[in-house]
């Protein structure tokens, strides 16, 4: 009777495994890309534009490019997100930051840099305080001038309204006064 069990040729499969391992090693050597050293996490130097797509509509078909389809497209990660909340989550995500070449750790501050930062804020505060000295008399004069201008414009509006009413009445001068009173056109 014939033996139905499969017979393995150990030498043949060892050679195949060795060849496959060599091929994988050669392919891996060709694909090796030196990654640049990652930069510590930094604040964005641009404003994220979420308002540009509000109220806009676009036609999306199956053949439309992903970057032109509905939603927000990320060039760095080559993905499309459908709403602004998910887009913000995406651009703040670890995956996106790594694709930008950043690590998720902020730069460690030294004592000297913190002192310099405090000094800069202190100088800025002093400059703002110097620039905001108020002169009470000049401010009161500005307010009174503004109020006088407002009163004058109101007077002009009232005079213009009276002139228009007088012109309308002059049109009806030849009409019976009782009739104008009944119509409510009397001033």
Automatic annotation (TrEMBL):
Residue spans of biased composition, Basic and acidic residues class: 1-32, 141-155
GO molecular function, one term: nucleic acid binding
GO cellular component: spliceosomal complex; U4/U6 x U5 tri-snRNP complex
GO BP annotations listed: mRNA splicing, via spliceosome
Region (Disordered): 1-41, 141-170
Domain U1-type: 69-103
SMART domains the UniProt entry points to: ZnF_U1
Keyword list, A-Z: Metal-binding, Nucleus, Zinc, Zinc-finger
InterPro entries, sorted: Matrin/U1-like-C_Znf_C2H2 (IPR003604), Snu23 (IPR040107), Znf_C2H2_sf (IPR036236), Znf_C2H2_type (IPR013087)
Entry protein name: U1-type domain-containing protein
């Amino acid at each position: 009777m014939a033996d139905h069990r499969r017979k393995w040729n150990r030498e043949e499969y060892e050679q195949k495994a060795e060849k496959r391992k060599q091929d994988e090693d050669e392919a891996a050597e060709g694909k090796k890309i030196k990654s640049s050293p990652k930069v510590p996490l930094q604040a964005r130097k641009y404003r994220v534009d979420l308002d540009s797509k509000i109220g806009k509509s676009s036609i999306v078909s199956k053949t439309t490019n992903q970057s032109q389809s509905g939603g927000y497209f990320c060039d760095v990660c080559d993905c499309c997100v459908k709403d602004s909340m998910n887009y913000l989550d995406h651009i703040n995500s670890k995956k996106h930051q790594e694709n930008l070449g950043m690590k998720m750790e902020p730069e460690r501050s030294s004592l000297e840099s913190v002192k310099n930062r405090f000094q800069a804020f202190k100088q800025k505060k002093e400059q703002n305080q110097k620039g905001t000295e108020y002169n009470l008399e000049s401010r009161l004069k500005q307010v009174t001038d503004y109020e006088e201008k407002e009163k004058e414009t109101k007077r002009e509006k009232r005079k213009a309204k009276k002139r228009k009413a007088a012109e309308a009445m002059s049109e009806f001068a030849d009409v019976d006064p009782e009739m104008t009173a009944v119509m409510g056109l009397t001033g």
